[in-house]
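Database export, one record per block. Field names are fixed; values are copied verbatim from the stored entry.
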Amino acid sequence: MSHTADDPLAPALPGTFPAELRAELVAFRRDLHMHPELGNQEFRTTAALKDRLERAGLRPRVLATGTGLVCDIGTVDGTPGSAAGERLALRADIDALPIPDTKTVDYASTVPGRAHACGHDVHTTVVLGAGLVLAELARQGRLPRPVRLLFQPAEEVLPGGAAEAVECGVLDGVGQILAVHCDPRVDAGRIGLRTGPITSACDRLEVTLEGPGGHTARPHLTTDMVTAAARVAVDVPALIARRVDARAGLAVTWGRLESGHACNVIPQRAALSGTVRCLDLHAWRQAPDLVHAAIDEVATLHGAKSQIDYVRGVPPVVNEVDSVQLLHDAMAARRGTASVEDTEQSLGGEDFSWYLEHVPGAMARLGVRPPGELSSLDLHRGDFDVDEHAITVGVELFTAAALL
């Protein structure tokens, strides 16, 4: 595929993407990596983004929550061929994780117990870079569609900062939204795409069981709390699996079960906690009622009273077909169709899904594994890192999507 100097895609093509901007973006990402901030505490990150966008002649607006920001490029009324609702949003999440950075690199985290171990520093830098390129094209009158940059806080905090961002009006006037997520199983220079669900729903579950305790010599005079808790732990996941279509992938998995303090005392209380994950959006919407009913049923059978705290997390990210095609065409325009691969649905959660409850959109898997590497450093690990060539690839992807 050839490109001339008059080609509107040329400014972000490999070889014409300004080398000084590539270097600046790598430095920006490393600075974020050295100064990770947790959800709703991203004040330094927000200030750095605001300063760089303002130096580019843009007018970013900090969200009402105090961190994160939005920045519009181009106007709906002033853009040829545009109409209300046609603004394209490019979303990045800006928060880090509460885990230590264990890498031995000169840009390792300087904040104890904090690390960008999920690639949000890369997502942020990609959207910033795309915004800088698109702002220059807008000044030249070459931006066919108005764009909104969205830098969202608190993705790692249930139920996710996206829900609050929507309440702040970040989708007003937006007709489509795109995002990327780092994938250490995909080589840098490539992206993974999937139409339909690409992540899982993830909710949190806390259960307390109560009943009269007593002596282990007379369990028939008590609620045998340990047995009741064990039956809830074993039977509830099995019941749930039989009450929805198996293809929905609705699964209850326990991470904690506590009860009792002495070998000869039947306790009065037991506590369980775990997660509810689901591959299907419709089944996820049914999940709270199904889980409540199953827990109550098993607890009552064993004479225990149940208190259930079901914390809604995020629905699955369900990629819309036209948005997936846009990402495919954008990547193909940059690097050819061979740079796009199919990806599987993940069991991880992502609050990008909240935006898709309101507008169509899609998320792509951004390859960050150095080509040729046989192993990969998984997400949410202190030694996670990326091939920084992925930054250029992400900028090219988003820029092309805005221009097509």
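Remark 1: The CA atoms of residues 85 and 173 lie 5 Å apart.
Remark 2: The domain at 201-314 is CATH 3.30.70.360 (Alpha-Beta Plaits).
End of record.
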